[in-house]
Description:
By secondary structure, the protein is of the alpha/beta class. The protein is built from eight helices and nine strands. It has a four-stranded antiparallel β-sheet. α3 (81-89) links the parallel β3 (75-78) and β4. α2 packs across α8 (182-198) and α3 (81-89) runs parallel beside α7. The model has no long low-confidence stretch (mean pLDDT 92).
Amino acid sequence: MGKLTKNQKLALEKIEAGKSYSLGEAAEKVKEITYTKFDASLDIDVRLGVDPRKANQMVRGVVTLPHGTGKTVRVLVLCSPDAEAAAKAAGADYVGLDEYIEKIKGGWTDIDVIITQPAIMGKIGALGRVLGPRGLMPNPKSGTVTVDVAKAVEEVKKGKIDFKVDKNGIVHSSIGKMSFTPEQMRDNAKEFINTLIKLKPASAKGTYIKSIYLSSTMSPGVKVDSKSIDE
């Protein structure tokens, strides 16, 4: 392990070893121990009691955060000409089809979310090698393949994010910024956790929510008492 910086030592001193904090306390604590000069992200890590190798225990979903993500989300809509005006009116940053497909083939990925229509997916399939590793491939389960592209754009701009459990049974996501108030951070975390609870697979046995940690981009994790979620 590398040598701890002065700020890292200060942060660790403010976290009580072995203590689980209520969700509200954890939000306040993360804000207290974040010393970055930039507006760091608020991250959540939830370890689930599932085996992601089994198809019936894969946890994947979407959630609209009450206070948004705090990020400017760049949205590309790949659609038919008749849907372009609505997509632009909804706030899409880029709208088109063939010209953007060619740009992506050339390596352009200066976007955060791609939204498209079911009828267009045949053209986008060839982009899998570029988009897949970057998590940009549109997917019906995340709401990014839809006939109503305008509505999808509006939802993403308001704070809709998608997530899925990794191979170790952990769901990791950014759910806000450190410039948020502790109350906004708590609300976003609560909505995220409650969405995970609703997605519990019927085949998952034993404890489902095994641990929850809140942290900022460069802070230590603060353990959250899962029993405090409904408070």
